[in-house]
Every structure is written in C-alpha cells, then in structure tokens.
Fold this protein.
Amino acid sequence: MPWKAISPIEVYKILPRTNCKECGEENCMAFAVKLVNMETKIEKCTPIIKEDKYKKALEKLTELLSPQVREIEIRSPKKTIKIGGEYVMHRHELTYINPAPIAIDIDDNMSKDEIVKRIDFVEHFEYEYIGRKLNLDLLAIRSVSNDPNKFKEVVKFVSENTSLPLILCTFNPKVMEAGLSVLPDSRPLLYAATKDNWREMGELALKNDLPIVVYSPGDIDTLMTLANTLSKAGISDIALDPGTFVGPNGLRYTLSTFTMLRWKACNEDDKLAGYPLIGTPITAWKMIEGEKDQKMWWETLMAVMLLTRYSNLLIMHSLEGWSYLPVVMWRFNLYTDPRRPVAVDPGVRTIGDPKEDSPVMVTGNYALTYSLVGMDIQSGKVDCYLVITDTEGIAVECAVPGRKFLPEGIAEVLKTSKLDEKVKHRYLIIPGKAARLSGDIEDVTGWKVIVGPQDSKDIPKFVSEKWDPKKLSEIYGN
Amino acid sequence: MEKDKEKIKNKLMNDLANLLGNKLLEVLEKHGEFEIVLEDAVIEVDELRILIQPSLLRRMVEVPAVEEAVGMAVTELIETKFAEPEMKWDGKIVEVNMGATPSEGGTRDRSFTIGGETMPPIYRLLGVEEAMPHRPVIAMDVFDMRIPLPKSIKLHFDEVMDDPAEWAKRCVNKYHAEMINLHLISTDPYIKDTPANEAIKVVEDVMQAVKVPITVGGSGNPEKDQELFIKISDIVDGEKVLLNSLNLDMKLEDIAEYIRNKDCIVIAFTPMDLDKARELNRKLFDYLPRERIIMDTNTAGIGYGLDYGFSVMERARLAALMGDKELQQPIAAGVTNAWAAREAWLKMDVFWGPREIRGPLWETSTALINLLAGADYFMMMHPFSIETLNKIIDYLMRFSPPDPGAIMDWVGSELG
C-alpha cells in the first residue's frame, strides 16, 4: 500500500504516556505529532529506549514508523552518511528524507598526486545557495589493478588523507578483503556482489557487518535473486544497482527499472525492492564516445535523471565544477520539505547604514530571491531599506502573474514598519519583473514607483545612476 | 589440602562447564579450535562430567565444515523473479492536435498530436505505448523584438533578432525546430505597446516564413492579450494555432466565447497551483472542447523554484491518471524559464566552468526533469538543449535492450 500518514493518536497509544519531557517536548502527544511528521526520532524518548518494560512498545513503534526503503549507514571514523530511509515514491506525498550522497571515484592505478587532487576536489567543493552550503559527500575507490596489495595501499593512503566515508569497488573478494584490512574503524559500502562472487563478498559483508551493493546490470531477476539470497544469509544492509545505462541502449531500461523497484517498495511493500538504489552515472565514461566534454555532459544529465527517479546514491567521475552544479542544486530542491515553502519572514530589512534619503526597494519573500537580492545590494555597497513582501515563498517572476506579489502586501509592510517615519522621500523601487504592477502599487501604497532592473545584479548600477531623491522630486513632485 | 583440591576442582569444573556451555560457540567461531593449558593441576577425567547439548555438538562438528564452504547459512542462490507491479490507472490524458496540414484544412507542412497517456512516463519495463503514446513536441521561442538574451543563446540568433520571420526561419532551417513559439512581447503596454493590429502582421509574416505549426503568445497583460488573441484567432482560423496563454485574470466569458467556433488551441496557464489549474480548466470546459486545451502548470529552472513546478506537474499528471477529469489535459512546460537561473548565464569563478556550457546544461536538465514529471509540449531556446532533449526522447520512446557487457566492468576500467 502507498504510504499513508500515521495518526499521532496511534503513536501516542504506544508511547509511555508519562509526559516526562525527556524528549524535549511538553508531553507525549506533542512528541507523537513530531514523530509522525518525521521531525524527531524515537531515540529521543529515553524511557522507551532504555526501560525493559517498553521493549514490546519500542518494537511496535519501530515497525510502525519504519520507512519503505531501508536506511543504511556508511561511516568513516569521523563522518556518517545515511542513504535510503525513504517513505514515499513522490515527494509531494510527504517529503524525501536523505539527500542522495554523491561519490567521486579514485582508482588504484592513479598517482598519489592525482589521488590527492581528487580528494581535494570533493573536500573543497562548495557552492553557496540561499544561505546553505552545497557539497559533495564521499569517495569511491576502484580497483583497476586487481592487485590486493596495490588496492590496500591506495585505500590506506586515501583513508589517511581524508575523513570522508568510502565506497570500496571491486568484484574480486581478495582485493576487497585487502582493502578492508586497513579500515578497522570504518563502515565502508562494499561494491559489489555479483552472481559470480556473491558467496565470498557476502561473507565479507556478514563477517564485518558492512553494507553491500548487489549488482546485476540489465538483469533484474538476477538482481532480485542476489538481494534475496544475501538477505536470507543474514545480511541486513543491502543496496541495489540494476545498472546505469547511458545512451540509446538501455537508458529507458535504467529509468524504468529504478521506477519499478521504487514503486514496488512504496506501493506493494516489497522488501526486496525496498533497498536503497545505487546510480552510477560514471558509466557515461564507458558508454559515450567522443571528447571528454561529451562524456561529462551525459554523466551530469544521467545524474539529474537518476536523482529525479529514485537513486539514493550517485557515483561519478568528472572533476569539473560545472558537472556537479545542477546536480547539487537539484538535489537540494528535490529534498526540500514540500510542506514548508523556502521562505523568509516579510518585513523590512536594513542593509548597510541607510539614512532618511536612502532608497527603499521591494522584493518577494522566496528565500532564494531574498538571498540573491540581499547579496547583490551588499556587494554593491548600497545602503538601503529592503521591503520583503509576502509572496508565499514564490519567486517574483512567478508571483507577479500568480497574483502573489500584491500591492496590499507591500502597503502592509510599509505601514507596520513605519518606514514613512524613517525616510523623507516616498519612492519605492520595485523589481523590473513587477513593472506591470506599477500603477496598482502606487494607488494602494500612495508611494511613487520606480521600476528597477530586471535582475538584482544591476541594482548597484541602477542606484548610482538613477537614485537621487532631490532630482526625483523635481520630476515627480512630492 | 584435600579441601583446597576439592575447591579448585569445583571451580575448574564450573569454569569449564561455563566455558563449554556459554562460550564455546563464540570461541569456536572466533578461532576454529582452542586448547586449555592447566598447569600444576591434575584433573581426574572420571570426575569431570560435562553435559553438552546435542545441538551444540552438531554446531561443533558443522562450524569448521561450513566455514570451509561459505560461512553463510545460505549456500546456493535463491532464484527470485521480479514481477512487474500491478498498477491500475483509470484516467487517460486528452489527445490534442496542433497545427493543420492542407489535408486537414490548414497550410502547415506537418501537424502533431500530444497526450493520450494512460500511465506516467517510463512506468513500464517493456512496451512504451501506454506510457508515451505520442512523442513530446519541442517548440523554439521567437520574440517580436530584440530582447536581452544570455550570450550563449544570442550567438545563435544575433543577426536575426530584429526580424521575427527570419528568426523563425533560422529555428526551422538550421535547428530543425518542430514548432515555433512566437512571443508578441512588444505589445506590452509597458514595453512598446504595439497595437494588436500591427502585432498580428508579425504572426502572418512568421506563418509565411515557416511552415511548421505555431504558437502565439502575448505579453502577459491580461487586457491586451485578450484583444490580441481575438484578432489572432480571426486570421489563423484553420491552422490549429496555439494561443499562449489564457489565465484566470482574463474575462474568459469574452475571450473563450469568442474563440469557441474557431479552431485555435489554448494553453491554460496557472501559477503552480493545482486548485487554480482545475478552476481554469473547469471554466474553459464551458466554452471549448477538451481537445483544444493544453495546460501550463508553470515551471522554473533548477534552483529557482523547480521543486514547486516539478511537484505540481507530477501531482497533476498522477491525479489525472487516477481519474481527475479536471486535470486530464496535456501539459506544456516553459523550460526557457531555466535561463532565469544565474548559474545558466552569469560569468562565474573559473572553477564552475564556462557559461556557454552551464547554460545549455541548465536548460537540458530542467527539460528532462519536466519530461519525467509528464510534460508533453516544451518551449525552449538553446539549439543544443533541444537537440539533446530530442535524443533522449528517442531513447525513451523505443525499447532497445541494454547490453550488460557495455558497463559490466566499469569498476575495473581506466576511464581517462
């Protein structure tokens, strides 16, 4: 059955109902509400975790709240990454939970310099977007040499030079074992068990309690066979790679397979399909002919499609910032909780040190809009008042046709903030994209409207060229 | 002495019993075998009685044997088949024809049908017919005046940007556009306020210059667009031209009533709001047959609201297929909005690469996300984005079995 919201009452009945407040909530009911909204974890309820008499209750609750897709941890001594743990097929049904981490590969034939370069790339990759930092997540070490000693050395070298969690990639169990021998305090992801090596690989996973990927490109029955076999053998943390095919032969197979697996996990309660899915856009480097740029182009598009269609982890190869920029931004968007708009509070923000003749500018309350406009004004060293009107978290260009950029909203902010006492003039600079609302805004607010630039990056130039309250009052009168 | 000996013996027996009873398994599993060395102690075997559970004995015998083979309780693959999910979709998306050839009463050299889906895209392993019965169509944007465009687009159209007919020709002849999406933005009272009578001449010019089906858009000003669309519907009757777009701010009782007996198709635009999308469709159904309505639920570029656009579109399509008759219209996606993202056009630090690649990458990625959500009709700008999207639509429209050998050993390959 598709995911259905659990009633807080149902959860409340299982909780201790002592209102002990150890979880930080006022009472058990408040905690139950947060639990069903995925805003807190059972672990916060210390009594149910620690006291023996609640053992049954804990089991019941864990079962009730368990996700449709198993959650798996990959760890280095310093960092833990969770994959899977999803409850729904479509984000609008609830929200997605664990943003799919992105791994970049290193192979054991690479020189130390090159390895360091790749580690640095992942560690230093950072893009600031609406006040958040977008990063890459882990490293996938591949054995190209197929030599256990060589692999071991490289795994050791990498683990000494980064604190990022690792994926170990080889189909040779001896190589895998050698790599594992130098990671005593980590929980790397093993890639991968196939129909040829599953006994030995499975044993390594079982013995060391490690998560393992089963891999069967283009053959979904074998993929299910492997997952079933390993799970019956007692391995609980399994992930599925049905094969990432790029290009004419297999792209559809890949997207369909990911979709069908997730459908079965979320709608048919199929436990075997309910493991995290592993996407490997890196295969573009094998499947796409031509220049490097071509391969990277397809690798990125593949990553975007796989993110959209249920991949819980991506392994990639490119070392260009542009390859990852749309991927990390789309990932952020996709995993944003759709229940809350990414919005800032309406009101007036003071930027720099505005005086009574400083400009007053208007923008919407979409977090991205606010952050970009704010950054542009600051970097242009413009002192001003920024009026943030409530556009329900929608960007200006959509809010204008959508009737969410309302003159009444602007008037409200002007009134409550008493801006008319702080500035002497009565001019509002509105976004160029809201030009056609000029008349309405003037009518409702009683302030004169000056249409600003289409893009906020031009605000500093606009202000230095056009802002002169004295001259303006000559033109418009006051 | 005798007492001490007895004590030690008792203790030893206890320890050994304990060891064998509780720890033996653990020790065995860890070491395979073990040895106890007792110094200065003589144990008379007949005094030492240890009870060993039969199951334990079996484990003691089996453990080494199993370890030799696998170490796992399962020794053979458990054959498991993947069964395609049982799905039930009750709804069907309406089919809409765009453009008319001479045999269909128009002058276009081709026409298209979109819609007809009975399940979401890519929801089948085999057989594409239900999931994508008609190929999605991509229209290229042309504007009736020179407008500021990102450099990487401008370089393809710079010389023709003052002449919409030439611009349209370039799209069709050089970039193989399937349709033209003409925007009469100069009619905006705040831009040039071009009168409707003058603007429709541009429509005629473009219809002369190219023979593909066309879409005509206004400026977004509800009153002006209404006037404009009425005039356009007069001059293009018989051509199945798309009007872009009708929305809730218009007097639908006037405009929809006027075009009732024409043949133009309308794009019904709502700003990322399903209730409004339903409301607009409901209102239009009073005037127009469903076969003449496409809906635009509004989309945005990655990082600039695509999360909203994507989810609204996906919800619309899923609801439609589950039987919501108010949302069963094909979906139009204004993917050109992707260019509002600064990452698509701004010169950034060298680390982020040239904007000439970021731009089309942004537009293509945005298009793909819309495609996966169910879009049928795309409005786009960059030739390379359009070419790539067309390729991917090709790949998705036919089933070509994967070749496992092509990627099987990506793990062990030198990738350059």
The longest strand of chain B covers residues 137-143.
